[in-house]
TrEMBL record:
The lineage of its organism: Eukaryota, Fungi, Dikarya, Basidiomycota, Agaricomycotina. Belongs to the enoyl-CoA hydratase/isomerase family. It comes from Pleurotus ostreatus. This is ClpP/crotonase. Coiled coil: none annotated. The keyword Nucleotidyltransferase does not apply.
Amino acid sequence: MAEFSTKWVKVSEPAPHVLLVELARPPVNAFNTDFWQQYAHVFDQISEHGSDVRAVVLSSANPKLFTAGLDLHATSTLTVDDTTDPARRALDLRKHILEFQRAIGAPERCPVPVIAAVHGLVLGLGIDILGYCDVRFAASNASFSIKEVDVGLAADIGTLSTIPKVTGNQSLVRELAFSARNFSALEAEKLGLLSRIVDGSKDEVVSAALELAKVIAAKSPYAVAATKQLLLHSRDHSVAESLEYTATWNSAGLQAKDTMASIIAVRSKKPAQYEPLRKIISKL
């Protein structure tokens, strides 16, 4: 899947229907504008053109860490003309922040599950990234920090919006966001940020994530995509609204060929064969 790769985001296909997306900006995967734009581009390309991709694992090519967060040197160069009045400067900065937020939120827009497999340092923006992934694994050597208050900011790219909704301990979320202290994989699991801690480092956690991705890739791609959309909808809507939305999805799903293919597979005790989620139509 080299066609999806960019300078600092590498994409490979380690198993059928499974992509591995690796952050690869030396030396510590710190995000400048080009990096987060490439990150969004890769996921949007997978969403648009990955016709038979069924699961994605997000990791780091750096054996020592996932990401050190924001490139503070690049941030220091983000200036606005001092002759512009504060209101107009604010509008320019707001536009930049919204673009940044949308970029880091790209895994949530991806129609297939995105499994984060992190190790080593996961600082600042790394927490923002995790909040938009569907499943989160960490190596036992992972160390986390919601770092933004240490540079005089409230976390603004996703952490304060997503993490309280995807975790269960609101008191601990606030403690970690207010203090910016480091916390371990064990504490991240206690928070509810992680579903699994894998003993080891990069190789071990990526291997575990890929095994889950292979299991997902063997399921009906329509059913998995529908499940992701319904879970996202449920997060932000009432039970009644979610049930109505589910009825809409399954009124189509009950007519899909995937249902019969799954039944035949169970009866024959053979792996099911599913059509790609969508066909890519060549442009004339």
